Amino acid sequence: MKKQVEGEFDWSPEIQGYILGSSFLGYVVTQMPGGMMAEKISAKITIIMGVFISSLCHLISPFASWSNTYFILAIQFMRGIGQGLIPAASCVLAANWFPIKERGFLNTAMMSGFCAGALLGGVATGALCSSTLFRGWPSVYYIFGSLGIIFSIFLQLFLFDSPKTHPRITQSELKYILLNQEFSFSGKRPPIPWRKLFTSVPFYALTVAMTGQFWASTHFVSVHPTFLGTILHYPIHERKKSNPSSRLHQGLCALPWIQSLRTFSVSMPKT
């Protein structure tokens, strides 16, 4: 079995940990502000800001890596800040759009997009790293960053905060959605029942489950590829595309996301 291919950056394991962890720190910081911005200002604006900031940081990342360690740390942190704005704002948007009868199915489908994106992105990343396009690994940041910028433009054109603000929605669609909502868009949202929330057993069960899920996801997108490369010595990219070790590495990285997709599909409520 081949040894791990040396990279172009002389980063110690400690520095690598800081670089990998800084984005997750930024992600945590903007979770609650993202939800508050979506509620008070606009879920659409919050999501577009998150996508644009994280995509722009993707484009800058190669230059930051070549420039300075502290620069890439800052860019990673900013990328996490952008990504942290998206989940809570997406939930607000879903509450505005999804009818009660279809909310379970649609929320599950929306959340499964994370696993599908990680799966497809992981496979594409391996192929791009082994290519000669833009010197290999930088192409991952250029391509995905550019796609994110384009996606933010599409969001600006086609995303709307609520059915009432959509200029092309039919009256029948609008009536169906509004009749299947818990509240009126013209009124204020009900106050958050904090006491009932923190004395609810299902709330704590969900908290534990979500903590485990995100802990595992964080491991698979950061520690897992590093473990396969440095401990098991599976090459992340290989010049020979037919190399079985490279395919095995990609397959091992994809397995958790395949299982997550299966779990989401099983948990989808039948409508």
Mean of residue pLDDT values: 80
Class derived from helix and strand content = mainly alpha
Q: Over the alpha carbons, how many angstroms does the gyration radius reach?
A: 21 Å
How many strands, which pairing sense, and closed or not: the largest β-sheet? none
Order of helices and strands: HHHHHHHHHH
What is the count of helical runs? 10
What percent of residues adopt helix (DSSP H or I)? over 70%
Unreliable sequence segments? 1-5, 238-242
Shape: globular
Report the span from N to C terminus: 50 Å
Report the portion of residues in β strands.
Answer: under 5%
Number of strands: 0
Keywords: Membrane, Transmembrane, Transmembrane helix
Subcellular location: Membrane
GO molecular function, one term: transmembrane transporter activity
InterPro entries: MFS (IPR011701), MFS_dom (IPR020846), MFS_Na/Anion_cotransporter (IPR050382), MFS_trans_sf (IPR036259)
Task: Write structural notes for this entry.
α2 (31-40) packs antiparallel against α3. It is built from ten helices and no strands. It is mostly helical.
Provide a short characterization of the protein structure.
Helix content is 74%, strand content 0%. It has helices at 13-29, 31-40, 43-67, 69-97, 100-129, 138-158, 171-179, 194-198, 201-230, 244-267.
Key phrases:
single chain; 271 residues; mainly alpha; 10 helices; 74% helix; disordered N terminus
